[in-house]
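Session log. Operator J.P. requested a structure for one protein chain; no other inputs attached. Running the standard single-chain path with token output.
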Amino acid sequence: MRGRTVTFARSRYGRIALFLGVVVLVQLLTAVADKPFFLTQLTMAAYYTLVTAGLSLLMGYAGQISLGHAAFFAIGGYASGYLTTVDLASSRSASLVALGERLHLLVPRVDLYGGEALSFHPWAAFVLAIALALAVAWLVGVPVLKLKGHYLAMATLGFGTIVYSVLLASQRLGAADGLGSVPPFPLLGGLAVGGGRAGRVANYYVAWVVVALALLVLSNLVQSRVGRALRAIHGAEDAAASMGVDVARYKLRTFVLSAALAAVGGSLLTHFNAGIGPGEAGVMKSVRYVAIVAVGGMGSLWGTVATSAVLTFLSLRGYFGTLDDAVFGGVLILVMLFSPDGVLRLDARGAVAAIRARLTPLPASPREPGGGAAEEKHRSKGVAR
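Structure written below.
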């Protein structure tokens, strides 16, 4: 019986159950401590965690680094935000608009001035946003993933910079102010993804259940034939190709999947916050996601999720102040020095030994008997000459 319990706890479904148990425990602790407002930042941290979970698959298993995943997060958020706030009422006579209204893809809403506007239903906007992110990821991934090492990193960094610049310069997308007044995302039973105080607890559970579903999909993928192929690519790409693994296809599909997870997080967070700004596509956002994956451990989905949840929550609460990026950089340096495999694989004794080794000065080389006196005598002769 005990063996079965241990086996279940170590299985992917057991870990998901344990993860959901921790989610429930955290919510109960916030209620007992009378800190319900913590759930807002924890909910936001969940949507950011979707980005790092997909990036963990891409970096830890496919061996591909991306410094542009914040761009996919922003694409999902901006697409959902724009489609649910654009007013197409003046184009009702157009055939496509009329068809969309008949299919309930376009729904009426009340604008800021009390008038009637016609916009995309949040579910239709969500599907189109994810489709857009998938298409962009495929178009970017086909040429970019042929690169390796720092060339790939620079290419994805360039892509992220382009997206950030476009969002910042586009007046239609709100320019530096971004998009606002994004409606809540409706779910079953009258529940909606939104920032209202009344739905704070429900939104917390919705966000982390979405993360749990993503982890279940990724865990099953890692344990499948696809996961074995990705590990082979990461270990030795040329050897994997010689064994019949379609390296280009696996790398591209992993890149597209990780981009889709980022877009899902961006879309849902935009509805939760009722808006999004161009800062979500910034370069430092992408660097932070990569740092979280490195701290959590390359190829460790659970380490990445734990690290992302804790560090993102502390950052959103403002505990790091103006040193936000510096703290992330410092944590990354410490982990790389003392636990390169991630925080969950930290060897306390090994870390202490490493610290002592770095702090202990090297012993001086032994000197020959009489060497000091002989050397001094030689110097005296040299001066006399």
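Operator note: The beta strands are 106-110, 116-120, 179-180, 185-186, 192-193, 275-276.
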